[in-house]
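Students often ask what a holo structure prediction actually looks like on paper. The answer is less mysterious than it sounds. You provide the chain, you provide the ligand, and the output is a string of discrete structure tokens encoding the 3D arrangement of the protein together with zinc ion.
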Amino acid sequence: MTVFENYLYDLQKIRVLDNNIHVSKYVQIDLSEQLTDHSRKFLEDRHNFEAYIDNFLETNKALVGYGGYNERRTLYKHHDLFNDDETEERNIHIGYDFWAKGGTAVIAPIDGIVHSFDYNTGEGNYGPTIILEHKADGHHFYTLYGHLSLDSIEDIEIGDQVGRNQSFATIGEPAVNGNYAPHLHFQIIIDLEGNFGDYPGVCSEKDLPHYLKNCPDPDLLFKFSEL
Ligand SMILES: [Zn+2]
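The corresponding structure tokens follow.
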């Protein structure tokens, strides 16, 4: 682990969704390439995909499905956004997703300020996004929240303070979130590389080493792998 990864790991009990949702209501969900061609085709339809997530949560008596860091996914194959260059398909997810009901509160895991926000429109895109900037214990980094509600970016300004455990956004519905089943995309970013209100959440095989280094595994904060 790097010094920064150690710092993240030493932070205790980090959550980014409504604190009233008990940890026993979280279940890991695998959206990797193990999905068969048949189910992939089926899940290309957003309503089918949403029903798949709802059913998965219900079967597991859960309210939140989590996971997806460094996960190779086929579910991006039908989006032009991720396939603009045939030779460099972007299909590796480098954030961490929380599949939960639209409207679920998003809370800040660490004190920070609003660095930037935007409405990244279009099929398969983030929809409303907020990036928080954090400076703590000699570390300087960012956290990105994607697929939010429009309300989340309505009354905020760059530089707004957001305290740890403060509810500052909510999960968006498909109509605004890029037409996905409702979920939060969370990502830790060391160097924003000049981005503003946006940062790649999916990358190609060729760029993976760079992104894994610049975007450490959020499970260092959540520690779900230790449950
Ligand atoms: Zn995501």
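The chain has one domain: 3-226.
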